[in-house]
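Inverse folding, one chain.
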């Protein structure tokens, strides 16, 4: 049930709030969004395909993470593509979309991580790093997300870049609040 709730929240956050303003999340989702904006690739399917190498790693080295995250990846990918029509349903300012999108995605990711599952992708990578180095997983996700958005700087308008940076900050804060360091 947690996977479905988390995936639903993430999908609403992406499609309802980020996509209408061409904003990015970080990690593999951010890469999938870039490919969606520039080439029209389905975001969910792209997320799934780009996550396969990390899933293979998890299968080989961290079997528990694989089992806990693969279903999350599949459900999130399907929800993202099925809820794509939400991009035309909310007529909100970019600032409001940043806030709501960040909260929806942060809560979705946070509750999934709290129950030791994830959407695969870089959340899975962040779980490995977090446990290996005893770091707060929200901080690790924030750093990975920041790297992706920074790399995409030249592909975004300045306003979209700044709002994407705010979005990943909100996602990181919300995720960190939900997943306390003692829960890593």
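Residues assigned per position:
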């Amino acid at each position: 049930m947690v996977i479905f709730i988390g995936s639903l929240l993430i999908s609403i956050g992406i499609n309802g709030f980020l996509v209408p303003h061409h904003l990015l999340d970080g990690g593999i989702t951010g890469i999938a969004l870039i490919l969606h904006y520039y080439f029209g690739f389905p975001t969910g399917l792209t997320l799934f395909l780009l996550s396969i190498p990390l899933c293979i790693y998890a299968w080989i080295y961290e079997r528990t993470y694989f089992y806990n995250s693969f279903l999350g990846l599949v459900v999130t990918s399907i929800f993202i593509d099925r809820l794509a029509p939400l991009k035309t349903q909310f007529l909100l300012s970019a600032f409001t979309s940043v806030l709501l999108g960040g909260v929806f995605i942060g809560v979705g990711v946070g509750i999934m991580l709290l129950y030791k599952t994830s959407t695969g992708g870089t959340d899975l990578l962040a779980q490995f790093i977090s446990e290996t180095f005893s770091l707060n997983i929200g901080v690790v996700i924030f750093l990975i997300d920041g790297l992706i958005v920074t790399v995409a700087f030249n592909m975004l308008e300045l306003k979209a870049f700044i709002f994407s940076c705010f979005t990943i900050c909100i996602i990181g804060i919300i995720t960190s609040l939900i997943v306390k360091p003692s829960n890593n």
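The mean pLDDT is 90. Residues 2-86+98-183 form one domain.
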